[in-house]
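Re: the multi-chain job from yesterday

Posting the exact lines I submitted so nobody has to dig through the queue logs.
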Amino acid sequence: MTLTMWVVLSAVTAYAIKVSGYLLPQSVLDRPPVHELAGTLTVGLLASLTTMNTVASGQALALDSRLLALAAGAIALKLRSPYIVVVIAGAAASAIGRRLGLP
Amino acid sequence: MRERLTPAVRMGLSISAAVGVYGVSFGALSVAAGLSVWQTVALSALMFTGGSQFAFIGVIGGGGTGAAAWAAATLLGIRNGVYGMQLKALIRPPARLIPEMAQLTIDESTATAVAQDEHDERVRGFWTTGIGVWLLWNTFTLVGALAGNAIGDPKLWGLDGAAVAAFLGLLWPRLTGRDPIAVAVAGAVVTIVAVPLVPPGIPVMVAAAVTAGIWAWRHHRRRGVTA
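And the result, structure tokens for all chains:
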């Protein structure tokens, strides 16, 4: 197979996986415990994504300017800033960290 | 037109900007790994799940086969299936929209949707983020593929920090009591432990499994008390 065929096959597989999640019957998803599970999963997923974006570098852990972004974001949130300010605070903190020579 | 810039829409736009620009990195790295501009563009438009795309070009760039690239990309994409279940449970989309929703089901659109409290806001958050990231990710992929590394590293502009703060901003309003905070801490700790042990993209799945375990344990215990 050529590389282009692998590109296409990988894209088709990725789409098939995405669709598969939506194929669970709604009757299963409507049960109250499943709703509660969905709420709990939300917190777990968001915490995991936040952590991954902060410390993961491929398959390694890296402590770098992204930690400053996490702290800046937390401070902005504590001050009840609008969401866009939180995001900009994160960007500014890690940009400043890098200009100062941190990893 | 009613309330066009609701909180969910604003979150979606912010995340789209922070994440979409990373397409430059992907485009430049993909061409450097030996893919053509069109193969690169096809990955962003059709596969559209950043982690899997980076895995695909990483394997090819390292001299791996197409089959190995496919396997790595597929492994990383499995979490999108979990996101689909979660979104279906929360949003209850009409069946006719599922083909488009599925294509836009990624970390960012899922996170923005599930972080909202009302149904309409979840829907708006999902579509704003999904379409916003898709447009910017593809635009910047093309820019990166054509311009190569001339543009420089988005990290120097702090965009990786923007993504961190964006996800924290989605999590923050959920941390309203002891239980959610305990779940969040568990999710974070599990992720840190899992990152060095399993391929990228899988730690989120491990965290989801552990979170589901916590829920099952609580559910079981509560039922034991009422019985």
